[in-house]
Amino acid sequence: MSIDQKIKSRLEELISQGESLRHGDREGSTIDESHMQKCSGWIAAARNITQLVLPDDQAVYRKHVEEITIKEHGWIINQAVGAITELLRNLLVDLKHGLLLSIIDQARAEVFDDFLDHARAYQAEGRKNEAGVIAGVVFEDTVRRVCKNSGIDEAGKKLDTIISELTKAGALTGIMAKRARASAHVRTKATHAQWDEFEMGDVEATITFTNELILKKLDGQA
Fold first, then answer.
1. pLDDT tens-digit readout, 173-207
2. Among residues 80, 96, 112, which one ends one of the domains?
3. Domain of 82?
4. Are residues 62 and 50 in contact, defined by beta-carbon separation less than 8 angstroms?
5. Which of 99, 122, 143, 197 could form a disulfide bond with 127, CB atoms 3.0-4.6 angstroms apart?
6. Do 73 and 119 belong together in one domain?
7. For 99-143, how does the pLDDT look when each residue is reduced to its tens digit (9 = 90+)?
8. What's the rounded Cα separation, in Å, for the pair 47 and 32?
9. Closest to 54 in 3D by CA, of 68, 66, 43, 71
10. How many domains does the chain have?
């Protein structure tokens, strides 16, 4: 499952939970303390995913969610859940219509930077295998995102095919394509636990190249 799909799936899950939690007693309040606590936990989760999807703290959806979450709601916190649920529902619609692709790319860039930091940490500790797995996964998802941004259908295609199509479309230069194939090799071998098929230097090259792709293609610079 791609990061896009995971984000949308999580939003759908929160919306479903929100629909259940928003309903209160006859007075419109939470039914009991357990209900109130579940609402509080849900709001924290909703705020977290909004911040992940919308790194800009001035983004409208994020601002509205945070304005609601900072208030003290007490026993009517379920009403806040209802309001945020509607915001998440509309956010999901915009995501599905591709209206927030650049924002998601920026969020992805930040998340990938974190993943690559983990890969670098493993690399520094001499843990080639772990570093290779993480670097390879981030590389593949980055390339697939670049493919989508270039208007190329990547679904079901192997990495080598994707790299060829990106090169043909001009999204990758010949040199970049060569580096991409070397990174794809690390991804494949690490995924299949073929540890002897790549070296620490290959992992380092994969991390470096993936970071360059993120900066150029997913961080608002291309």
1. 999 999 999 999 999 999 899 999 999 999 999 99
2. 96
3. 3-96
4. yes
5. 122
6. no
7. 665 555 555 555 566 778 888 888 999 999 999 999 998 899 889
8. 23
9. 66
10. 2
